[in-house]
Write a structure and sequence with these properties.
Elements: H1 5-11, E1 16-21, H2 26-33, E2 39-43, H3 51-61, E3 67-71, H4 77-85, E4 90-93, H5 99-108, H6 135-142, E5 144-149, H7 152-156, H8 158-162, E6 169-172, H9 174-180, H10 190-206, E7 209-213, H11 217-225, E8 228-235, H12 236-250
Parallel strand pairs: 1-2, 1-8, 2-3, 3-4, 4-5, 5-6, 6-7, 7-8
Helix pairs in contact: 2-3
Length: about 260
């Protein structure tokens, strides 16, 4: 039974640095898997990823050290079941606003009697198609649920969400949180930053792991001092675009580049 090292490191309170992956390419995934990150989250919420495209990415990164997370597009138990069966052990679920939603997600990720996950280990890559002895008896212990707190309602219900058994971590999404707080497009607004700081402190105080998306190294250090134990520091799409724009600009005829 593969051990969920991401979950283990959360419990050990070891800082883990990660990256959002949205290019929907197993080829680029293999490049990123060797780049030195502790974890990579395959985004299937805002990208064209589906289980059929996530699977080869999981396979491409399997021999590398980063732990792989998947972010589904919604809370559909059938979709959650598919991602677990193809080998994802940690799921990051977006827009979790209350304890009822969190409890439903816990149940969707677990086999009975703790949950409602359907049993078909002979069809599941996660079980090596029945090659993992006792998979169905061990799987509940290795799955990891990260809930995303991204709205005013989520902040208001944060303590009750964290009290749900089976919620392993809470991840703050600054962009959606800023929009919910009335500051669309301004995740650096003082009200938003204050809300993030307070949320991280509350999460850490609960004993659960706290995470946040932050691209500025200085701000990242500050959020870690507030209790963040795992951070996402960027996305592959942004990295590619920024590097491409910079390279193209360096060779344009603007007095500093190459004349055409």
């Amino acid at each position: 039974m593969p051990k969920n090292l991401f979950k283990q490191r959360l419990r050990e309170k070891r800082l883990q640095v990660g990256l959002f992956v949205g290019l929907a390419s197993h080829y680029s995934m293999e490049i990123l898997a060797g780049a030195g990150f502790d974890w990579l989250v395959i985004d299937a919420e805002h990208t064209p990823n589906i289980p059929a495209s996530v699977l080869p990415q999981l396979q491409a990164a399997a021999s590398y050290s980063p732990q792989l997370l998947v972010r589904p597009m919604n809370h559909d138990p059938a979709l959650i079941k598919q991602y677990l069966d193809i080998g994802a052990q940690t799921l990051m679920l977006p827009l979790v606003d209350d304890a009822e939603q969190a409890g439903a997600l816990v149940r969707a990720m677990r086999y009975p009697p703790q949950g409602i996950r359907g049993v078909a280990s002979s069809m599941a890559r996660a079980a090596c198609w029945n090659g993992v002895e006792g998979y169905v008896r061990q799987a509940n212990d290795e799955v990891c649920l990260v809930v995303q707190i991204e709205t005013r309602q989520g902040l208001e219900n944060l303590d009750t969400i964290l009290a749900v058994e089976g919620v392993d971590a809470a991840f703050i999404g600054p962009a959606d949180l800023a929009a919910s707080l009335g500051h669309l497009g301004d995740s650096g607004h003082p009200e938003v930053r204050a809300a993030i700081e307070a949320a991280l402190q509350r999460i850490a105080a609960s004993g659960k792991a706290a995470g946040v998306f932050v691209t500025d190294p200085q701000l990242a250090r500050h959020y870690c001092s507030c209790g963040a134990g795992f951070i996402a520091v960027g996305g592959d799409t942004t990295l590619l675009r920024n590097a491409a724009v910079k390279l193209a600009a360096a060779f344009r005829d603007d007095g500093a580049g190459v004349a055409r």
